Amino acid sequence: MKKIAIMTDSSCDLDLKTIKEYNIEMLPLRIVYKDKEFLDKITLSSSEMFESLKVEVPTTSLPDLHNTEKVIERLKSEGYTDVIVATVSSKLSGTYNSVRLVCESHPELDYHFFDTRTLGYPQGVIVLEIAKLINSGKDLEYILNSMEDIRKRTHGYITFDTLEFLTKGGRIGKVAGTIGEILHLKPIVSSDDDGELYNYKKARGRKKAISKMKDILTSYLDKGKCRVWVLDGHCRSEVESFYESVKDYKNITEISIESIGPAMGIHTGPGALGLCIYEESE
Question: Are residues 169 and 262 in the same domain?
């Protein structure tokens, strides 16, 4: 009988309690400062990272290969036969290919690689839905056949208080970033079917951007029932205000506030407000 594990990287932004509850194997990205290094969500919290941005903007690096090897060895010793590896978009990170190379050196397990083609909490929701199928005892073929449908029903949007960190991270050009700041443009960014980030909408000013985020949410709720997560990138009061203004919308089946993790927050900067929406099946 097959014993199935689910493995992802810390770009998923699921909190550690959820990861433990659903038996998800998380490979932490590394957060690198000039004179020190941390493991995303393990040895550095979101609040600590956002505070540190006042002094230094760190970089992110791929999950530690030695740690990945240890996780695989443990899964083998625990009798797992199959591992579903669902990672951050391969267009945005080298994590997918890096983890795949490590896995291929341990052929005792059967691996099933899935590029979520997104990042942050939307990636987390995809991983969580796969974990629920595993925990409910669904067979491997059913789970593998369900993953693309799960991905297509998961949507993420995020708006930023500043374009400074997107510019530093190379997500947008310096000229575009400077012009955007001068004009007070607040982009709303999503990921497309290829796993690339793109500008979904632009708004002039923070209030209009947040208003457009509500419009995006209602466009899904008008079609049917959804689970919703409001994502906090170090702007708690605005996030709580947004949450209070939408939590009673018709067709929301569940809603909560979740934190943008340290690795993701390096690229968003403080003041990021996001939405993750999962369209429920009929």
Answer: yes
